Amino acid sequence: MSITNKDKNPNGRITETAEELYENAPCGYVSFLTDGTIYNINATLLSWINFKKKEVIYIKKFPELFKIGGQIFFETHFFPLIRMQGYIQEINFDIVRKDRTSFPGLLNVNEIPAKGENPLTYRATIFDITDRKKYEKELIAAKKKAEEDSHAKAEFLSTISHEIRTPLHAILGIGNLLNKTHLNEDQKEYARILLLSSENLLGLVNNLLDLSKIEAQKVKLEKRPFNLKNMVKMMQQTFKVKAAEKNIDLLVKLDKNVHQEVLGDPVKLSQILTNLIGNAIKFTKYGSVTLSIEHVETSKNKCLLSFKVRDTGIGIPKDKLEAIFQEFSQASYDVSMEYGGTGLGLTISQKLLQLHKSEMKVQSSEGKGSEFSFDIWYQVITNHVSKKDKKISLKDREIFRSSRVLVVDDNPANIYITTQFLNEWKLENESAKSGLEAIKLLKKKHFDLILLDLHMPKMNGYETAMQIRSLNFIKQPVIIALSATERGEINYKLKKAGMNDHVPKPFQPEKLMEMLVHYLHNPNDCIIEKNLYLPVDLEEELEDLTEIESSNNSEVYPNIKQASFNVSKFVKMANKNAHYLDKFIKSTLDALVSYNKEYMEAINKNSEVMIGDLIHKSTMSMFYIQADHLSKIMEESRILIATEDCDALVLKQKSDECSAEFRKIIDGLKNLKANEILAHLD
């Protein structure tokens, strides 16, 4: 059979046979019998696998063209599939060359029914997808790099925002304190500008951090009861001064059918409304800004509420309505220059609404104003009694006068600002510049509440809290963390360290006061989660331990230093007290038994997160017994699980090694007797 083309060809007739088309097709063709024997194969596929035709025809079987995975598929799945549907479509297998190297192939197989004397056979097409696989790997690598870059960006923004928030805390604190002193008119204006500029900078930092967290999918909706009417009232009070400064009316319209008590995320709603109202006031020179909330419908115990923020400002050109929701974008360059801002507020608001399964809508007329609107479903609450706004009442003043607060912070400016507010509220207070200094103070006198900075050198806030919880107080103090890091990111660590609550820096004095009032009135709310951190009396934790640790004389210090661990820190801290030394060893032993179980559970579940949490949780125990090798193996296990193509055999070997190390230390600690150790030291 031949194919002829004569269409205006200057060279005359061109003839191509079907055989030529078959042999030189851009894909491999192979035909085989029901037992897999190959009876035909084209030149293209032969060139790919570097065989001659005589080496293949009626000699090789079809599965032999594949690596072991393809051979297993042919033996187990091929015939059931082909009989059920008559074909197999686009399956990836590695094709083996004569020299045993391979290339990725895409396989399609069709069943050729028996006809006359011809038996049932199969015809396969094979495509060389080496380039495609290369592109896929490049795409995967690019995606991984993009994710790593995104994570690095988020980490950078988190770090830099913390570094900026710390001095901002001092600036805002001093500004608030200045406002409470006797100032002349010029000084009041200076203080007002100082506070306004600091708040604007804080808003920018918060926006950048929020955006990075949303992109990293770290933001989740909370569900807690809140009073919508109170929130709206608070929003009105927040923007009242700014609106008055521009002679703009700030109006609020609350539909009488709106349920006041609802279950949802008040922080996210407040953030969205703050962005919209702030923008509306910024871009309005005359007229008004109106916030309206309407009840749309009720379904079972849920209600749909419509929120609208309308202004009589400069408006937005029609061709810019979509651009304003893009990151760092505003309606025009002139607008950015005249009114300022970063163009992040609407982006963040839209992304927060997407978490609510909603979206922002905008209607605008240039020169006349704009209206931004959105709808959110909330669960209705009928029997919730909301907390009243806290003010310093006579009862509060009485509890303040009878309470003592300890402020722990390595930054003198932070200590000064915090203690100034405590002094103003007539709260007796003292300060410590380190965790070690705080523990020494706590041993001498009782404090009802501790304000504890998390980021301190040598002994950070988490370690300090753990040591405080290990002290045998008749009544444990309330511990409130102070940090520029948001609570959602550190909540787990706070609980594990035994802290009760968290105040983000820079804080509003009123917020801190509300928290102090609450915990001093309700000390029973000081719920401490029992954890497995090593309870240790650490007066001299950071002092020189060389006296014991540097000694390698096992006759003088029997069993103190073994291959897998070293309890010399315990001996030093026990100060020749057998009771305390036994307690230290027993606590560590119990913790390690639990950690070993958690480790095996994490391995069985192949969970990097569980092992990561375990490594964090066990840090203090490993530090005190100097089990560096065990810590190293656990980290290596975590890295193995995190690896995309984790080798099960290698992971099994690593987990066996880790379990053996656990057993060594556990058995070693069981054999330690405090009296025997101390007897050799005398």
TrEMBL record:
<dbReference type="InterPro" id="IPR001789">
    <property type="entry name" value="Sig_transdc_resp-reg_receiver"/>
</dbReference>
<feature type="modified residue" description="4-aspartylphosphate">
    <location>
        <position position="453"/>
    </location>
</feature>
<dbReference type="InterPro" id="IPR003594">
    <property type="entry name" value="HATPase_dom"/>
</dbReference>
<protein>
    <recommendedName>
        <fullName>histidine kinase</fullName>
        <ecNumber>2.7.13.3</ecNumber>
    </recommendedName>
</protein>
<dbReference type="InterPro" id="IPR004358">
    <property type="entry name" value="Sig_transdc_His_kin-like_C"/>
</dbReference>
<dbReference type="InterPro" id="IPR036097">
    <property type="entry name" value="HisK_dim/P_sf"/>
</dbReference>
<keyword id="KW-0597">Phosphoprotein</keyword>
<dbReference type="InterPro" id="IPR000014">
    <property type="entry name" value="PAS"/>
</dbReference>
<dbReference type="InterPro" id="IPR005467">
    <property type="entry name" value="His_kinase_dom"/>
</dbReference>
<feature type="domain" description="Histidine kinase">
    <location>
        <begin position="159"/>
        <end position="380"/>
    </location>
</feature>
<dbReference type="InterPro" id="IPR011006">
    <property type="entry name" value="CheY-like_superfamily"/>
</dbReference>
<feature type="domain" description="PAC">
    <location>
        <begin position="89"/>
        <end position="141"/>
    </location>
</feature>
<keyword id="KW-0902">Two-component regulatory system</keyword>
<dbReference type="InterPro" id="IPR000700">
    <property type="entry name" value="PAS-assoc_C"/>
</dbReference>
<dbReference type="InterPro" id="IPR035965">
    <property type="entry name" value="PAS-like_dom_sf"/>
</dbReference>
<feature type="domain" description="Response regulatory">
    <location>
        <begin position="404"/>
        <end position="520"/>
    </location>
</feature>
<dbReference type="GO" id="GO:0000155">
    <property type="term" value="F:phosphorelay sensor kinase activity"/>
</dbReference>
<dbReference type="InterPro" id="IPR003661">
    <property type="entry name" value="HisK_dim/P_dom"/>
</dbReference>
<dbReference type="InterPro" id="IPR036890">
    <property type="entry name" value="HATPase_C_sf"/>
</dbReference>
<dbReference type="Pfam" id="PF00072">
    <property type="entry name" value="Response_reg"/>
</dbReference>
<dbReference type="Pfam" id="PF00512">
    <property type="entry name" value="HisKA"/>
</dbReference>
<dbReference type="Pfam" id="PF02518">
    <property type="entry name" value="HATPase_c"/>
</dbReference>
